[in-house]
Automatic annotation (TrEMBL):
Pfam families: FHA, FhaA_N. InterPro entries: Cell_Proc_Reg/RNA_Proc, FHA_dom, FhaA_N, FhaA_N_sf, SMAD_FHA_dom_sf. Residues 128-143 have a biased composition (Pro residues). SUPFAM superfamilies: SMAD/FHA domain. Residues 182-235 form the FHA domain. Residues 121-165 are annotated as: Disordered. This is FHA domain containing protein. Keywords: Phosphoprotein.
Length: 260
């Protein structure tokens, strides 16, 4: 049995098992996995040599009810959905635009049982930077029976809540600005890759900083050929406000400040 079938089988069993109270007649994980595969197929762009580029970031917008019920299982569901998406990409010869990631957020105007899939191509912030060295965990403690028991459970990295972060709306696709610095450009090394001949290889960068409890977002042009425009005005560097319209080459985007 392939990993997709195993994941779907496991998730289907979960619906009738420990997660039954959470899922009921609301969104089913198997439905999300199928929708991600369809979105991947629909967005596949031919690269040549039998390979096709597909989005790597899949933001799942859920109703308030579904998000509240699935929130407790977000990490486990995300891992399973990424595994299913990776298997589908491998089986079809797809090349994701970066590390695959599935993010669950609360959407607006959605009824219970209805969800949206927002595919995007965006590198994970800091993916090119090696992680800092980790300190050695405490030595396991032997029990009288000889079984080794860890003194502390393994810790998981804190997850960023994407709905609280600013994001870009580009042609209806949602691009969360998860890192403190996000580069936009035509080059594959950019965090958000724009397939636009009017966009420079490294066109502009968006910086997110904190001012007390508030997030402050600004955009800076990186000496691009055709310039960076905010609300029709060519800029060098400017602070962004919710609803600002960005133009890079022929690409337009709307800045959203995220949940306040």
């Amino acid at each position: 049995m392939g990993i997709i079938n195993r994941v779907e089988h496991g998730l289907a069993k979960a619906v009738h098992g420990a997660f039954a109270r959470a899922f009921k007649s609301e969104v089913q994980p198997v439905e999300i996995a199928s929708a991600i595969r369809r979105a991947m197929d629909d967005r596949a762009a031919l690269l040549g040599h039998g390979r096709a580029m597909v989005p790597n970031l899949y933001t799942i917008e859920l109703s308030a009810t579904d998000y509240d019920r699935l929130g407790d299982y977000e990490d486990e569901l995300s891992d399973d959905l990424v595994a299913a998406a990776q298997e589908h990409a491998d089986s079809q010869g797809y090349q994701p635009g970066g590390p695959l990631e599935v993010i669950l957020i609360e959407g607006e105007g959605l009824e219970t049982g209805v969800f949206r899939v927002r595919p995007a191509t965006a590198k994970r912030p800091g993916s090119d930077t090696p992680p800092p060295p980790r300190s050695a965990p405490p030595a396991p403690r032997p029990t009288p029976s000889g079984t080794l028991v860890d003194e502390q459970p393994p810790s998981r990295p804190a997850r960023v809540n994407p709905s609280a972060r600013p994001w870009l709306d580009i042609s209806g696709d949602r691009y969360p600005l998860l890192g403190s610095l996000t580069t936009l450009g035509r080059d594959e090394s950019a965090d958000i890759v724009l397939d636009d001949p009017g966009v420079s290889r490294r066109h502009s960068e968006i910086r997110v900083t904190t001012d007390g409890p508030h997030l402050v977002t600004s955009i800076r042009d990186l000496n691009s050929t055709n310039g960076t425009f905010v609300n029709g005005e060519r800029i060098t560097s400017v602070r962004l406000e919710d609803g600002d319209r960005l133009t890079l080459g022929r690409t337009s985007a709307t800045f959203r400040a995220g949940r306040r």
